[in-house]
Amino acid sequence: MEFDPADYTGKSKRDILRELVEYVVKTDEEMEGKTTRSGGQTDLNIYLCDNQGFEIGDVDHWVHQLTEDDRITGHAENFASEHTFAEDVADDDISIVTITTPAKGREDEFLFVATDDGDYVWVITTVHSDWRDKTIERFLDYLPCLERLYLSSDDLEDLTSDIRDSRVSGFTAKYHAPNRERDATLRFTGAEPGDLEKAEDAFDAKPTRIDFDQTNSPSTAIQGANTNNGRISMRSVRDGSEPKAVETLLGITEEYQSLDRARFDVEFSPELRKLENGFTVDGFTAVELTEPDRDDAATEELVDELETHVLNGNRYRHGIRDGGTKIRVFDTEHDETFDVALEPPDIVLYARETTSALSLREFVREVYEKLDSTYSLAKKQNPVAIQ
Amino acid sequence: MTSLTAGERQRREVNTYNLFYSAVTARADPPLHSRGVRIPVMFPVFEDRSEGRSVKAQPDFVLYDGSTCALCEIKSGHHINERDINQMEECGEVTIEAAEAELENAQVREKTEYDGTVTAVESLIVYQDMDEEYIEETRRESEDFRAALDRITDRAVLMTQDYGGDLRVLAGDFDDDGAMQSALRTGVTLPENPPDEILLTEGMEPEVLAMAVTDIWGEQALDHEDGVEVTREQVRDFFAPRHNVNPGDLGIVFEFLEDIGACDVVGTHRYEFRREHMGAILGVEEMVMEQRVEDYLREDDQATFDSFSGDEDEYDDDEEDDRRE
Predict the structure, then answer these.
(1) Which residues of B touch A331 (CB under 8 A)?
(2) Between chains, do B105 and A284 touch, taking CB under 8 Å as contact?
(3) Helix, strand or coil for residue A51?
(4) Are A387 and B282 within 8 A, CB to CB?
């Protein structure tokens, strides 16, 4: 076993990251020899997850759920039966989860860290991307209590540009829209300043991953990447720059969480209450997807597109409302409903009493990935009866 | 104008309320909430029997910003009728003390930063289908309209609203000159497609009732592993006193909901909503927009009778026969 629980017991997040950064420390020679990135090596990866009911030590319980709960689809059940899972608890907030794939004779380890407030779980690993896909990413997909955070491209750019002493060194940008034939992915390495903006202007391509180089004067000392799907990674840290790398990771995780919260958290829930002398609806929360790369769309067209690309599949049930201008959506995985109001070409999600960030985030992700990558994202909220 | 179904007419009324509500939300521009305005209570009854008074005002919405309390009546049409004038007359009778008492009932002190003090009570009435042009033309052409306009603006500020357009003053003056009055005079641009926050109409006919019951109790089932039980009386109490739901209407609504698989009957006038009913619940609005609940039940009875007396459909009636003995 690579990770030893004893190494992490009682450690702060800072100390844990300090330990883990060691995995990607490079000598000066190694740093100089590596101006472009090759895929063979392993990075330090952190998956940032919204925690809705997961506790350290719970892995067994949730794996059991995957095999028992008849709401869970066959994919999850197969996944659970093709692997074995073990959790070594270091303390209340930290454990090491091992996913074994007997058919391939593999054991992959992941450090689970619950943040102090319990709102988030970080899953940290140095496992290669091929195996992350097959193990932890699927596991996180199937666990209803942990949901990877998500940022729009605009927020991803803000997150990356806020990293001190850093520049964009590469990116992956996607373009996808219902009214265009093209479904394009741009992968750009060796980026110069302004290249990302050029790609956005020329192709309306929206970044889903941004690589950055950070200097620790005078030279490049830290190379990392942020993706919009709740994963941040560090590829290399020059020997001696470890403290700066730890600060960078702490800064990115904090801002990532705060941007995700700003877009998806339902702080003002529209709770309908009976009062002694009437009714009240406490709060208001709307998530707006606006200004896509097309001027207009008929309401029926947009409903049709949502039904074909987003609402299809097992997760959602829906009903058409208000003469075809609204859709009531039931997210069966999270047991939440919300309304989708059409203001073509814009789409507005209205929270209902049961709605949380879980279903809003997932729907927005689906719209970006399956329908149209060019929307801008904003949340509007306010108290109506309270405060 | 194409004719509306009963459900569509009720939907239109519901939407009128929800459009007004949206003026306080962050999707309006500028939202009234940013000027400190809240909606502490909807569909209240303001009763004042002090010192020989006999006031019973029943506005649709109450706006409050810590000093002004506005009683708002919302109409979907453009016709100023006698009843509207009387309603605004009652609203105009509400004193500062009575307004403060109702804000206290609405738990304003517990729920907001406001202490519930009122310095001015305003009455306003919104006609969604009215605009400046209509007023000007009709005023020129109809003496009755001129008289009605004068009488209503003596009692209230006359406003209008539109989807993606403005909530704005058409005629009449506010009594006082506070922050809320100035915000309303400036006007608020409303969203094109406001949220469904309230599913209530004055009449609470079966169609909107079916939607409201499933919206409120049906969706509560998602938070309860074992489902949610509700009785006919609980539903009536919830909507009372402003909305006097007819027990007979409620009876046919639940019969309809049970028939389409949106709830189960678990006792006398006692119903249960569970998670697995959600599929049917999601279809309720589309059904009641197309057809009255009563007509659905009549056709359903007829279909049962037909298939019962005929012999071509052998199997699928068993279940229905049991239910409808």
Answers:
(1) none
(2) no
(3) strand
(4) no
Rounded Cα distance between B184 and B170, Å, is 11
Q: What angle do CA A338, A342, A348 make, to 5 degrees?
A: 50
| Secondary structure letter of residue B138 according to DSSP | H
Q: Over the stretch A126-183, which tens digit does the pLDDT of each residue have?
A: 999 889 999 999 999 999 889 999 999 999 999 999 999 999 999 999 988 776 667 8
Contact A322 B196 (CB under 8 A): yes
Between CA A191 and CA A74 the distance in angstroms is 42
Distance of residue B144 Cα from the nearest chain A Cα, in angstroms: 35
DSSP string, B195-209: -------SS--HHHH
Q: Which helix (H) or strand (E) holds A50?
A: strand A44-51
How distant, in Å, are the alpha carbons of A325, B145, B163 from that of B196?
12, 33, 14
Number of Cβ within a 10 Å radius of residue B229? 18
| B185, containing H or E segment | helix B179-186
Minimal Cα distance from A278: which residue of B?
Answer: B44
Whole-model pTM over 0.90: yes
Strand ranges of the sheet holding B68-75, from the earlier edge strand across to the other edge: A272-275, A278-281, B38-42, B61-64, B68-75, B120-127, B157-160, B166-171, B188-189
- Write phi, then psi, for B26 (nearest 5 degrees): -70, -10
The neighbouring-strand residues paired with A273 are A280
User: In B, which residues are within 8 Å of A299 by CB distance?
Assistant: none
CA A281 to chain centre: 31
pLDDT tens per residue across span A174-188? 988 776 667 889 999
Opening angle at CA B242, ends B236 and B247, nearest 5: 30
DSSP H or E segment with residue A216? strand A206-216
The distance of A97 to chain B (nearest Cα, Å) reads: 30
Residues of A in contact with B109 (CB under 8 A): none
Q: What is the dihedral of CA A336, A341, A342, A347, to 10 degrees?
A: -60
Of A26-40, A91-105, A361-375, B14-28, give the lowest mean pLDDT range: A26-40
Closest CA to A51 of A142, A141, A146, A117: A146
Q: How far is A275 from chain B (nearest CA, A)?
A: 6
The sign of the torsion formed by the CA atoms of B181, B185, B189, B194 equals: positive
CA distance A338 to A367: 15
What is the reported pLDDT for A144? Answer: 85
pLDDT band for position A73 (cuts 50, 70, 90): low
**% of chain B exceeding 70 in pLDDT:** 93
What phi and psi values does residue A170 have, to the nearest 5 degrees?
A: 180, 170
Q: Which helix (H) or strand (E) holds B38?
A: strand B38-42
Give residue-wise pLDDT tens across range B272-301.
999 999 999 999 999 999 999 999 999 988
- Asked if A319 and B282 come within 8 Å (Cβ–Cβ), the reply is yes
Start-end of H helices in B22-156? 82-92, 96-105, 108-111, 132-141, 143-155
Contact criterion met (CB < 8 Å) for B112 and A387 = yes
Find the mean pLDDT for residues B206-235.
95
Over residues A367-387, mean pLDDT: 93
**Residue A165 in contact with residue A208, Cβ under 8 Å?**
no
Report the half-sphere exposure of B120 (CA within 13 A, side-chain side): 14
Q: Render B243-295 in DSSP notation, one character per residue.
A: S---HHHHHHHHHHHHHTTS-EEEETTEEEE-GGGHHHHTTHHHHHHHS-HHH
Q: pLDDT tens digits, residue range B70-94?
A: 999 999 999 999 999 999 999 999 9
DSSP A190: S
Backbone angles phi, psi at B166, to 5 degrees: -110, 145
